[in-house]
Specification:
This protein is α+β, with helices and mostly antiparallel strands. The chain has three domains: 92-367, Beta-lactamase, CATH 3.40.710; 383-474, Lipocalin (Beta Barrel), CATH 2.40.128.50; 479-571, Lipocalin, CATH 2.40.128. The chain is built from 14 helices and 32 strands. The strands form seven sheets. The chain has an eight-stranded antiparallel β-barrel with strand order 17-18-19-20-21-22-23-24. It has an eight-stranded antiparallel barrel with strand order 25-26-27-28-29-30-31-32. A seven-stranded antiparallel β-sheet has the order 1-3-2-16-15-14-13, with helices on both faces. Strand 20 (424-432) and strand 21 (437-440) form a beta hairpin. The longest helix has 23 residues, at 2-24. It starts with a helix and ends with a strand.
Length: 573
């Protein structure tokens, strides 16, 4: 009884202490900096919104001239137990993992055990023969054409918070019969490529991928709190759990991945700082490997893409930057390196609404402010400066073809011109730059109409990212003309081993709608764009294209979504 009372008293003191330190921010005690007080104070002010006792938070580290010059934690790693984030908190860093996977491949290449130009089927013969060579380099540069594993899994009826293993991903990829495109023809991000690369590391080295990376990378660099997590039951001390706000309340975002290579690296901002330092002064690998890591991919036509081996190569306000972000469940992470100035910025968060890339750039603004190009100071744009003639709007209204299954639609209301796409019914306001030229708020999209001659505009120019595309006027499609009932039935995909049921149901306005139903997926609403093309209401099924036989009977459809194109479903009713 006496011991029980003593234990209870000590426990009460512990809770009182935790309550005190949380309310008075114990996290400041974890802060480390060799920067002037005014700079470190600016970092703290940048993350003030997460410096609370009731939200998920952020871990930050800044590396400069070969050392960590700032590190701190804000907010909480575990909301149910009030555990604060510190620079020692372990995060799942999602796609930043990819550069460790490609680095492992390069280590094996330096060992003489493989080549970046090896055919993937040399090491993983289960990968289907697509009648073309897919190299390890294609996989590492996201130019392989292999469909993305997460999109495929979702289309196959999986939830992304299901337990997902490497073996399951490999079995799904082995069923694929087609690619998104021919290898080297395009750049399209594909997580599948990095799962395959991690499997190559395991098969060539004779060790598991987590074991190989621990022995060859993490231990030599002193990354004591870093591991590839491929066992969903494994306990990891001091890890942050992930959250996202919904209806003003934070909720858990469960992540049960048991697969590594494309994702699943667990680490701290301190440990990742050691990785960033290795790029400037390699203790693991060599200068030649680092150079390969930073080299951008090249498409078959000679186009240089901005993706290197698990990294994005570009600039930020005039300064060369090599970076990568990560996002899984509620984890949001970013690593930015500025090699010309020996600076790296690392930002991790367990808040699904956090923009890790934007916040990392705010830190970079402080660290590099004397080196960055000054933001262009332009005269504030006032829409009232230009007044368009609304009498011209009827000549601009209508459908303009952007793709076979997507139109740009212009409409006017109350002397204002709007546009929307055929798959998005929400109109977007346009602001006039002249009588014929209109721009979206923020200036990301611009439309230029031709000089009118005898009737409505027959074309419009779409200007985006300095690229101009001419869109022709097309006839308005009436969805009511589509016979939805002839599309109903059951459709099976051998590649996904799943059957979708197509039904006609009534919507809230008692109008018929075509829906895909499945026990695991629920309902996907399909909206006609043309007689054969439909927009899907789910991210993983955003487009459906029906196919007909010689007798014009429906024989199946092709489903696309995000990073997956044209998965075949055969009609089986």
């Amino acid at each position: 009884m006496k011991h029980s009372l003593i234990f209870s008293f000590h426990r009460m003191l512990l809770f009182l202490f935790m309550g005190f330190v949380c309310s008075s921010h114990i996290l400041v005690a974890q802060r480390y900096t060799t920067l002037p007080n005014d700079l470190s104070k600016r970092f703290d002010e940048t993350f003030l919104a997460w410096d609370t006792a009731w939200t998920p938070g952020v871990a930050v580290a800044v590396v400069k001239n070969g050392e960590i010059v700032f590190k701190n934690g804000y907010g909480f790693a575990h909301l149910e137990y009030d555990i604060p984030i510190t620079p020692q908190t372990i995060f799942h860093i999602a796609s930043i993992s990819k550069q460790f996977t490609t680095f492992s491949i390069l280590l094996l290449e330096a060992d003489g055990k493989l080549s970046l130009d090896d055919d993937i089927r040399k090491h993983i013969p289960e990968v289907p023969d697509f009648a073309t060579t897919i190299t390890l380099r294609h996989l590492a540069h996201n130019t392989s054409g292999i469909r993305d594993q997460w999109n495929l899994l979702a289309m196959a009826g999986w939830r992304l918070d299901d337990i997902i293993t490497t073996e399951q991903v490999l079995r799904l990829l082995a069923r694929q019969k087609e690619l998104n495109f021919q290898p080297g023809e395009e750049y399209l991000y594909s997580n599948s490529g990095f799962t395959l690369l991690a499997e190559v590391v395991a098969r060539v080295s004779g060790k598991s991928f987590p074991e190989f990376t621990r022995e060859r990378i993490f231990e030599p660099l002193g990354m004591q709190h870093t591991l590839f997590y491929d066992d969903h039951e494994k306990i990891v001390r001091n890890r942050a759990y992930s959250y996202a706000a919904r209806n003003g309340e934070y909720r858990k975002r469960v992540l049960s991945y048991a697969t590594a290579g494309a994702t699943s690296l667990f680490t701290t901002v301190e440990d990742l700082s050691l990785w960033a330092l290795n790029f400037d002064n390699p203790k693991v690998g060599s200068a030649a490997i680092i150079e390969k890591m930073n080299t951008q991919g090249v498409l078959n036509d000679g186009t240089i893409i901005n993706y290197a081996l698990g990294q994005v190569v570009g600039t930020y306000r005039g300064i060369p930057m090599i970076s990568h972000g990560g996002a899984d469940a509620g984890y949001r992470t970013f690593l930015a390196r500025f090699p010309e100035h020996d600076v790296s910025v690392i930002v991790f968060s367990n808040d699904g609404g956090f923009n890790s890339g934007a916040m990392a750039m705010k830190v970079a603004d402080i660290v590099l402010e004397d080196l960055l190009e000054k933001e262009k100071e332009e005269e504030p744009w006032d829409a009232a400066i230009v007044i368009a003639d609304p009498r011209l709007f009827p000549f601009y209204e209508g459908h303009f073809k952007q793709a076979p299954d997507n139109h740009i639609i212009f409409l006017s209301k109350q002397d204002t011109l709007f546009f929307r796409t055929s798959s998005n019914r929400q109109p977007i306001k346009l602001y006039p730059l002249s009588a014929r030229e209109f721009i979206t708020e923020g200036g990301t999209i611009r439309f230029v109409f031709p000089v009118l001659e005898n009737g409505p505009a027959e074309t419009v120019e779409l200007v985006r990212n300095d690229e101009t595309t001419e869109l022709p006027r097309t006839q308005i499609f009436d969805p009511a003309l589509v016979n939805l009932h002839e599309l109903t039935g059951r459709y099976y995909s051998e590649e996904l081993d799943i059957t979708y049921t197509m039904e006609v149901k009534k919507d809230e306005d008692d109008d018929p709608k075509l829906v895909i139903t499945h026990l695991r997926i629920g309902e996907i609403t399909l909206t006609p764009l043309t007689p054969d093309h439909f927009a899907g209401s789910m991210w993983f099924v955003s487009r459906i294209r029906f196919e007909k036989d010689n007798q014009r009977m429906i024989k199946g459809f092709r489903a696309s979504g995000g990073r997956v194109r044209d998965v075949r479903f055969e009609r089986v009713k």
